[in-house]
Amino acid sequence: MNTAAMPVHRPAGPENGDRSVLNATQRQAGRRLLLPREHGAWGMVSLPFLAGAVVGGDWVTVRVLAALLAVFSVILLREPLLFYWRQRAARNKYGCPSRPAAASGGYERRNALLSLLIYCLGGAIAGLYLAAQLPLVPLLLLGCGAALLTVVAAHFTVRNYQRHPVLQIASAMGLTSSSLVAYLASSGRWEAPAFWIWGLFAAHSSVSVLIVHARLETMIAAKTSASAPTADRRNAWIAQAGIGLLLATLAISGRPWLVLPFLPPLLLHIWELRQFQPEKLHRLPMRRVGWMQLTASVAFCLLLIAVWR
C-alpha cells in the first residue's frame, strides 16, 4: 500500500485547536466597539428623544446634540459593563479559562476596554456641558435614574432574568425617559408636555413588549404537542384593553387629540393578536413583522409630535 499518497489526518490537539480558535477570534476582531444586540432598544430611545426635542421647541442646538451624546453613551456603556460582569461571574464559577478561551478573551477585553473608555469619555464631556447649561436638579435625577437602570439591567442580564415581561416593561419605561432629557435640553426646563410624551411612549412601548412575548409564546406552542401556555397572549389582550381605557379617559377628559397617535399601533397590535395562532405564524416572515412594528412606532412618534406642536 502506498502510504505516501494518503492524506495525513492530524488530531485536533492543543496546538491545532488553539490555532483554529485564534484564527476564528482574529476574523471576528474587526468589530472594535461593543454595541447592543437588542434592536428594539434603539427605537425605544431614539423616537422618544426625537419627540421630546422637537416638542420642546429649540431642538437644533448644541445642547440637544450634547443630550443625544449623553443618552447614547449611557445606553452603549451597558455593553462593556456586561462583558466585565460576565467575565467576573465566569471566573467565580469556573476558575481560570483555558488557553484558547484566554486568547479569545484577550481580543474581547481590548474591545471592551476601548468601548468603555470611548463611551465614558463621550458621556463625561456631554454631561459636563449640560451641567453648565441646564438646571442641576433635573440632570441629577436623570443621571441617578440612568445609573440605577443600567446596573439593575446588567445584573438581571447576567443572571439570565432579563426576558421577564415585568423587567422588560421597566426597562422600556427607563429607555423612553430619553424624551425627558431631550425636552430639557431643547426648552431649558421641564413642562407638562415632557411628562405626557414620556408617559404615552412608555405605555406604547410596554404594550409592544407584551405583543412580542405573545408572539414568542405562540411560536413555542406551534412546536410542541403538549398544552401550550397562554399567559402572555392573555396579558397582551389585557394591555390592549388598558390602552383602550386610557384612550377613552383621554377623550373624556378633554384631550381627544392624544388618541390619534395610538391608532396605528393599536390597530396593528389587535390585528397581530388575532393572527397569533400556531397554524398562521409561518405566513408572516419575522423581518416583515419587525418592519411593521417599526413603522407603527414611527407613525406614533410623528403623530405625537404633530398633536403637541
What does the model show?
29% of the residues are buried. The protein is flat. It folds into two domains: 32-46 and 57-160, no CATH class; 191-309. The longest helix has 35 residues, at 99-133. The chain starts with 13 loop residues before the first helix and ends with a helix. It has 309 residues and is mainly alpha-helical. Helix 3 packs parallel to helix 5, helix 8 runs antiparallel to helix 9 and helix 9 (231-252) runs antiparallel to helix 10. Helices cover 76% and strands 0% of the residues. The chain has eleven helices and no strands.
SSE topology:
Elements lengths: L13 H14 L11 H18 L5 H33 L4 H35 L2 H23 L6 H12 L1 H10 L4 H32 L7 H22 L10 H13 L10 H23 L1
Which labels suit this protein?
mainly alpha, 0% strand, disordered N terminus, flat, 309 residues
Secondary structure tally: strands: 0
Kindly report the oligomeric state of this protein.
Answer: single chain
- SS content category: mainly alpha
Strand composition percent: under 5%
Radius of gyration: 24 Å
Task: Report low-confidence residues grouped into runs of 5 or more.
Answer: 1-30, 98-103
Tell me roughly what share of residues is in helical segments: over 70%
Determine the mean pLDDT.
Answer: 80
Distance between the termini: 87 Å
Can you write the helix and strand succession as a string?
HHHHHHHHHHH
Number of folding domains? 2
Largest sheet: none
Shape verdict: flat
Enumerate how many helices there are, as a single number. 11
Summary, kept brief:
The protein is mainly α and 309 residues long. Helices cover 76% and strands 0% of the residues. It has 2 domains: 32-46 and 57-160, no CATH class; 191-309.
